[in-house]
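Entry 14. Structure prediction run on the chain below.
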Amino acid sequence: MTALLYNEDALAGLSRIEDASVDLVIADPPYGLGKDYGNDSDCLGAQEYLSWSRSWIDAVAPKLKANASLYVFLTWQHSPEVFSYLKTRLTMVNEIIWDRRVPSMGGSTRKFSSVHDNIGFFAKSRDYYFDVDAVRIPYDAATKKARSRSIFVGKKWLEIGYNPKDVWSVSRLHRQHAERANHPTQKPLEIVERMVLASCPPGGTVLDPFMGSGTTAVAAARHGRRFVGFELNPDYFAIVESRVAEVALGQRSLDLQARKSEIALSDCAGEAASG
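Output returned:
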């Protein structure tokens, strides 16, 4: 696992990334809603925000390989304009709705409560990498039993699960969640891992221009993908470093246990041969 982490503005650092070298981009930019990220990165007016969005898209798009993909998290306020611009550079594959499972606890009385994020899924070309088998959702025992008729026997989709739909119902990370870091808009690992497994080949490279709490870096590390990412805020960058180091330490521990097992098995084999 290789992770290159940069504590700097992506627009300044992306020029060092070789063109056509990245298999997958996962971008979670500021939404333009005035969130406090320890700087003024989310305090742009509407036109300034859209201009800035075009700038980072123009910087990122050349880094994609011919069969690469890009996912971008947005909110409904700006997703139509940003998606429209992305479609001038890439092919749009899906708009995914992330249902954050926000509980019913009052909310606005002047409009319907917003409980979702918009995720754009784009590809460099129509020949993009996509491994649906890596992200299939298993059927439960009752569903399998209900499809026990002969016409279903041996069907691959029944045995390994179904293709995720374009509405992803995954709970947001509440403050007491074990996965939660000190970041106001941290994305769940479950969502980002699905993107990595489906759209980046094993050993491929994932780029995240706005690392935040480092969830994409963690997903890449956990699944054997190379990673390169940028984060402007030094406090958040420290969180990324800590989370990636924790994954690396866990993997080294597993490797050590595996080597010990191999040694133990070899010793047993030697004793059997001697006997």
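The chain has a mean pLDDT of 87.
Filed with the rest of this week's runs.
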